[in-house]
Amino acid sequence: MNSTTTELGKMLRKLRIDREETLGDMAERLGFTSSYLSAIEKGKRPAPAGFAGKLAKLYSLSPDDERDLAAAADKTVRNVKVDLGATSDVKREAALVFARSFDELDDDTSRRILKLLQAKRRDG
Fold first, then answer.
1. What is the pTM of this model?
2. 30 and 12 Cβ atoms separated by less than 8 Å
3. Which of 43, 42, 21 is nearest to 30 (CA)?
């Protein structure tokens, strides 16, 4: 991750400015240090799991704002860990084949996979 301001960082700064809070104020409310929150804003650290939900709850944000924050936070993620311990053999194989093939996927194939998974998520 580079050290330029991320989409999430811009959203956090806007939220602070709108609420007349300092970086320290927001960090304290979130239970973080100022340096950790600053690193998230600058793209030096990924947003932790549940970050958007915690912000939404603390600041009484709308579901749309929470969704936008979650999407921006997702863009900061560099690594994904998948626990395959309690899954079926076919799901385990699918995950492993996907992981091994990931770097070879072109954007079109990635979009098709994303569309398929998003549709499955929406439909339950």
1. 0.69
2. no
3. 21
Residue 40 has, within 13 A of its CA and on its CB side, a CA count of 24
pLDDT of residue 1: 46
Two tokens, residue 107: 């954007």
What is the signed CA dihedral for 9, 13, 16, 17, rounded to 10 degrees? -170
- Residue 124: its pLDDT value, please? 64
- Burial of 20-48, coded b for 16+ CB within 10 Å and e otherwise, reads eeebeebbeebebeeeebbbbbebbbbbe
Q: How far apart are CA 68 and CA 71, in angstroms?
A: 5
* pLDDT tens-place string over residues 46-75: 999 899 999 999 999 999 999 999 999 988
